Every structure is written in C-alpha cells, then in structure tokens.
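May I ask for an example protein's residues together with how it folds?

___
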Amino acid sequence: MGTPRKPLYQRLPEIYHIRDEEQRPPGQLKAYVDILDGLQAHIRDNIETLYHEFFIETCSDWVIQYLADLVGTSHLAGDAWTLRADVARTVHHRRRKGTLGAIESLTHVLTGWAVHTVELMERVAWSQHLNHQRPDEGGTPPIPLQIKKNRHICGAVRGGTVTLRDPALLSFLGGPFDPFAHVVDVKPINGGSVRYNLPNLGVFLWRLRDYTVPVTKPVLVNKIQDLTPVTSPVAPYALRFEIHPLGEPMVLFNTHRPQSDEDPPSLTHQDAVPGPMPRARLSDNTPAGDPEEYLAIKLYSTVVPEAPGDKKVGLTLHMPASPFSTVAKWRFRGANLCAWERGLNSPLLEHEIVVDPDHGRLLIGVGGADKTVEAEPLAEGLFVSATYGFSGSGVGSTGAHPVARDDSPLGTLKVDYNTGPDGFPAPGGTGLQEALANTHSLTAPCVIEIQDSRTYDLDMGAVSGIVDEGGLKVLLLGDSLHIRARSGQRPIIRLKRPLAFRPHDVTGSNSPVVLGDLQVELEGLYITWDKTSSDFGPETALIERAALNRLVINGCTLDPGSHETLGRARQPARYAMRLTNDGGFSDAAEVAAFSPPKIEIVRSICGPLAIDDGYPLHLTDSIVDAASGLGASSPALAVHAATGDPEIQWGPLLTVSGMTCFGRMRVETATGAGGIWLHRLEVHDNQQGCIKFSYFSGAGDRLPQHQACVFGTEVELGFVSDIFGQPGYAQLLLQSDRKILEEGPNRDVMGAFGYLLDTHKWKNVNIRYREFMPVGIRPVLIPVT
C-alpha cells in the first residue's frame, strides 16, 4: 500500500528521452535504466511496505489479524474494510463499553450500515404514581411541557396516549424513532420484529445504501397545466414531473448524514437516515414537519447546475436563478400524486412544491401574468438530484449506480451532454455519437468517458462510419472500444436502434491479430431503449450482435423493462442480448474466420439472454430478470438459444460466480457457485461441470454434478422484492432458510449479493455484542430497509 514511485528513467532530463526515442530500435536507454532501477525499486518498495504494516489504516489485509492480537481483540471474518475499522476502534469502544454510543459505533464499524439503538424498556407503557409524575423530566404536567417544547399542543408524551393531531409525528409509529409508549411484548425474538420488553435493546439497521444521481432532467408530464382563472394564493399554473429520468415510478430515499463530530457522535438522526422519505414529514404546515431535512432548492445561473455537496439532502431541485431569485419562500407538501390529473383536495398554491416520495412525482405551482414568466423557464430549466436505495456497500453494488470508479487512462475521449470529444459544443447529447464516429479507423484502443448523468439518445444510424448489414446498423471496429461512466455518475443511454458490433476486417492479413484482441467493454452505464422507436419490436434485444473476441458488461443496467406501473401492472421483460453462432455474418469466409466471443456480465442487471451454444457466458454477481418472480405460474426463459425453438435448442456455455435468475434457463453446459435459480435449470451436457453452494427450484431441473446445494422443495426462499426498480430488489428475506443465508460461497448468502458478505456482518456484530453488551441486556436486530 505504498505511494507510487517515480521510475529512475522519468527523472532523467527530457533531452535523453527524446534521443532515446530517435534510436533504432527506440527505447534502448529506457530498457537499460529499468534493469538498474528494478532492484532499487524493489528494495525501496519493500522498506516502505514494512513501515506501512505498522499501522492498521495502511497495513495489508493479511496483517490485520496480527495487529488484532496486539490489542487483544478476537478474530472475525468478512470484508477487510470492516475488520480494519474494528481493530482501529478497539480501544475507543472499550473505553465506552456498555453505552448506547459504543453499541452504535461498534455496529456501524462492523457492517457499514446506518444504525440506531434504543433501550426498548424506555418505550414500555407504565402507570405513573400521582404523587411522582415523570412525563419527561419529572414533575411537570405533560400538556404544558409539550406546549413549551413544541410550541403546540401536539406531541408525544412519555407514558401518555398517542396524539392523532399531527400525521408527521405519527409517521414515526413503529419505527426506530417512535416516541410513543407500547405495552410489553414477551414473544420470542425472531424475524427482526420490534419486541418492547425490559431487557431488550433495539438495534435498528438500514441495510440499503443511498445513491444520489447528480443533476438529471426530470420528465415533464404532458404540458404546463393552465389553472386560470384563480384567486390568490392558488397557483395559476401547475407543472407535473416524473423525477426518474425515464418517467418510471421510484421510491425517494433520504441521504445518510451522520454527525460524527458531535460529542458523543450521532450516527443517526430521525431526518437523516438512508430510508424512504416519510410523506408526512415533507409538509411544512404541521408542527412535526421538517421538509428542509429532505428537500432543498438550489438556484443556478450557469448552463448546467453544480452537483450538491457532501451534506446533500435526499432531493435537490435545481431552478434557474431567473426568474426564481425573487421568490421569498417556497411552501412544501407531501401527498399521494397517483391521481394528480384530478387536482389536490387542498388547492395547489403559488410557489408550492408537492412531492410524492412513494412514486417519485413532483407537482409545482408557479405564478406570473402568463406562462412565459415562470412556468416555461421552470419547464425548460428544472434539474433534480434525486436519491434512491439499493443493496450495496463500500465494495460495490450490482447494476449501474453513481459510485466511485478508477480514473480514466490518458487519451480518453471525454464527453458530456453539451460538449463533444473535441471540446467543442455538442448540444443535446450528440457528443457521444461524435465520439463513436469512424471507429473502423481505430489503430489503438479507444476509451470514451461520459462526464455527467444525463440521458443520451443514441441513434446508431446517425453515427458516421456505420454500415447496414443484416438489417442492423453495425458499428465497425478497428480496435477495442470502452465506454464508461465517470466516477460518481450514472448516465443513461437510450437506444434508437439496437447495439451491434463487428470487426472492420475479418478476412484480411492482419485480421487474426485484431480479432484476437478485439473487445468492447461497457462500464457503469444504464442502457435502455426508446419506447417510441419502430426498430424495437417485442423480441428485439438491446445488443443484437457482438462479433468480437470479448464483450464485457461491467457494473451496468441493461434495462430489463420489468418494472411495475402505478397501476401495479408488471411490464414485460426486454431482451438484453441476442447473439447467434454465425456472429451475424452472411459471407461464408467471414463465418469461417469468426469464433464466438466470451461474454462477461459482472455485477450487472439485465433482461433475458438469447445466446447460442457456441458462446461462453460468465455471470458474476449479477441478476438476470425475465419478469418471473416467486409466484410465476408459467415462468419465462431467462437464458436460452438465439437460433431455432428456444424450448428445444440449447443456450450458451454457462459459468456462474454469484447470480440470481428470475426465470428458467436452458444451457449447453453449466458450472460455478453461488447461483439462485428461482425456476427450472436445464443443462444439456450434464456430464461435465459442477455447481456448488447454489439454490435450485427442484421442479424439473436437469443438472450436472452439484455439491452443497439446496432445493426449493426442501427449503424456504423469499425476496424483499422481485420487481425491478424497487428498493429491495433481489434482496433475500431474513426469513429465508438458514442454508440459503449462510451456506453460499465464503459461508455467506447465495445469489447476486453474496460478495457484500451480509451474513458475516450479522455474525460479527453478535460476536462483539457478547463482549460489549451489559449483562442482562438482549440485542434485538431490526432491519429497517
């Protein structure tokens, strides 16, 4: 973990570099100096490494257990980051042993989740002695106390009855910040339920991670709604927005904003946790409402607003400074906007913002003498930075998310929604099409990095150098291509036509060398299709051709299309790939020269895969969704052959390393570990390969050799949600069988999220609780998300 060392050759004056390149062959001095420098570099790196091994923050992973011995803490297993943090804070936790702060800090260190601890005995209802009233501070009657504290008669009174006057306060009922009294619950602790009892300590955990997509464009629904004539203060104009850039329903989350600098540190605050926004808390006309902790308005005067900072709230609305800099105050309201066409029961007021956090909708009332004053500038200039929840941790997540990524290499073509790869204006996202132009002339690998999170409409027919072959617009490649998202961004690519790739020359003298190294990698991208395009039929895939040596889908979402509408209707799945053994070539010589490439899908979400049996398919920590959940009576095929009848032919050569499949599979061969096949898996050649530590449906499976696997006929399996787009998508229920949760690879969960090591986190905190929990106290772990 040492700092990068500058090689000796780079320290030489530039004149020697120039002369060295003029030699034939070039680089002779560099090769000679590198030999001399190699031994010195090795000694230097070894000495620096030895120094870093003294410190828990910088030591190698294998050293952690030895430093743990020095401070006398027991060994744990799991993610290296949590183990490192556990050892680093051992002394701190021991000094505060037995306190709520120590339990919170310990749990957060070992899991990385937001956590809030509550002594549940403090929430048990009890009858007060009339001579010794103790509503909160002792002696003061409860109603005057609440008027003084909340400036209102509403409020929770310790040991009192529930007030029904404030819905914002009622939104805390049954949760981690519940202020009301409850009767004693003596039932056994199971399933993460709250049990109000004297010895119980409630440990509330937010297992989903909050992801904020910076500066996206919401979808204006229909047009500006003209409400005139109206009388003040009712708004004369209303604008309706879907916050999701594709207009799909989404659950809005708040961001986690721990106050680590406080004394004692506050890891959680009732309005700063990574969970769904409570609708009632978004209203500013109630005593317990606090919309400023969830919503923020930022004015901008530049072409594109800046992304919110580290202390951002869940939803930031970026409005143009002109004309809204003169607005003194905005009103906020939380409401259900499913039927917003009918209007609101309380009329929409001028400069009022109504948010539906359960469905991701936004209704804004504006004023002005006509639409041009405020309504049209807002319709054109509104941007949002919205937060959603999904399974993830510091080691990453599955699908396209705005996470940290490595820096792009030198020579990368960088584009954003208003600028092309040459740095000149390219409005409307056309910079991506410019960067893909004439890829047939590439002589070196090309990297294209998208700098923002906007939605790019990509028409392969409009890219220069495209050829029409087999009814597809095909991108010719002279060398490898890598399209990636910038660190912290999640761009959306909306296809007008399917993606298709092939080499520029297949039968030329140099083609074996080019084809042997030719690969396409897509990283961090959310790829969907234009639902109005005639080029996308019901069976058309997002990627229709990949005549390469290797296709890598890394941390992407190939939109499976299987989300639910507001009417609870499940949408049909969209194919992610359709790849045939002939590579799409029609010329016999090209077909003979082509060998099906390796398809790697790593930590990605995709729809069904129609791939022939010549392709090796590697699925790693990924989800394949054919819109067939647990209750599907006739599950659809998720992986099958692209040619012929999919119920008769056999699909690709499958290798799995952590995977969840919502649908059936028919493949030629299968091997790997950590898979969850919710429905039937059929393997043609079941005499080779072995599948380990996996779950099978047990209903008509045709399997190869398998070891330490479980079947749906013997164990119970459940998901928080099996519907794409919902926060708990593909997350296993804690009520699932112990074998599924603990006997996957690395003794953790099976499925796509095994690499998060969630089971290790549960076990580690329970081990530590035995040391740090006061005698007689029982921890009750309660997942909030």
Summary: The radius of gyration is 29 Å. The chain is about 15% helix and 25% strand.
